[in-house]
Amino acid sequence: MFLSPPLGEGARQRQKSLGYPRPVNSFVISSLFPVVLLIAAGYLAGRRRWIGGNAVKDLSNLIFLLLAPALLFRAMSTVHVQALSLKPVAAYFIASGLLFAGTLAWRGFNRTGAVLALANTYSNTVMIGIALIGLAYGEPGMVVLLTLISLHSLVLMTSATVVLELAVAREHAAVSGADRRSMARTVGRALRNAIIHPVPLPIIAGLLFAQTGLVMPEVIDKPIQLLGQAFGPVALVMVGITLALTPIGRHWRGALVQALVKNLVHPLLVALIGWLLGVRGIPLTVMVVAAALPIGANVFLFSQRYRSAEDLVTASVAVSTVLALGTLTLVMVWVQWLP
Description:
This protein is mainly α. It has a single domain (34-335), classed as Na+/H+ antiporter like fold. The protein is built from 13 helices and no strands. The chain is globular.
C-alpha cells in the first residue's frame, strides 16, 4: 500500500486545475506504468522475433544519431543561461559527481566502470520527471526541474563520454604499446570526440542558438519536435527487445544493486549535499525526487554504443523502473520531513 506525502497549497491547486483530485502516489504509479509497458512491448516483440538481434545495433544507431540529437537540441534551444537558478542544481551535480567518482573507484577506470557510474547517477527526468514534479509541486517545482533538465544531459553525458573515450584511448594505447607522446595525442583526440559527439554536440548547439534570441521557424521546428518525441518510446521499446534477446537471469543480483544505488543512495546523497549548501524548501525537494527517479534509457544506449555491460545495464533499467513504484513514494514521503 502506497503512502501519500502531504501536498502544499500550490500542488493541490495544480491538481485541481488539471482535474486530478487524486493523491500523488496514484500519479507516481500512472507515470511509471507507461514506461514499464513500453519495455514490456519491446520484450514481446523480441520474444516473438519480430525484431531480431541483428537489427538492435541499427536501431541503436537510429536513436543515438538521429532521435536523441533532435530531442536534446530542441530542449536546449529555448534555455537562457541568465534565467537559471544554479544553486540547487549545483548540489545535485556535486552529489552525482561524488557517486560517479566512487563508482569508478570501485569498478575501475574502464568502459564498464564508466557505464555503471552513469547508471548510478542518470535519472529519467524527462519521461517521468516532468509530469510527476508538475503535479506534485506545481509551477515552482517545474521551474527548478527544468533548470536541472537543461543541464542534466550536458553535464552527466558529457562527463561519461569523456571518461569512456579516455578509457577507449587507454585500451588502444595499451594494445599498441604507444609512448607518452602518442598517448597525449590519443587523449586529445578523445577529448575532441567527447565534444564532437551525437550527445553533447546538439546540447551545445541548442544552447548557443538560444542565446541568439532567434525563434526556430515552424517548418523546421516541427520535424525536429516529431523526431524528439519518437526518442523516448523507441528507446524504451529497444530496452525490452534487448531484454528478450539477452539472458539476464544471472544479472538480477547486480541489477538490484544498481537499482538500489540509483533509487535510494543517489537521492540520500543529494539531500545531504543540498542541506549542507543551504538549499531548502521546494528546490531541495525537487532535486531529491529527481535523484530518486529510475535509471534513464540513455544509459542503455551508452552501454550499446561502447559495447560494455549491456546485459547488466538492460536488467538494471528495468529493475530500477519497476522498483521505483515503491522507492519513489518512500522518498517523496521522507523528503517532506527534511528541515
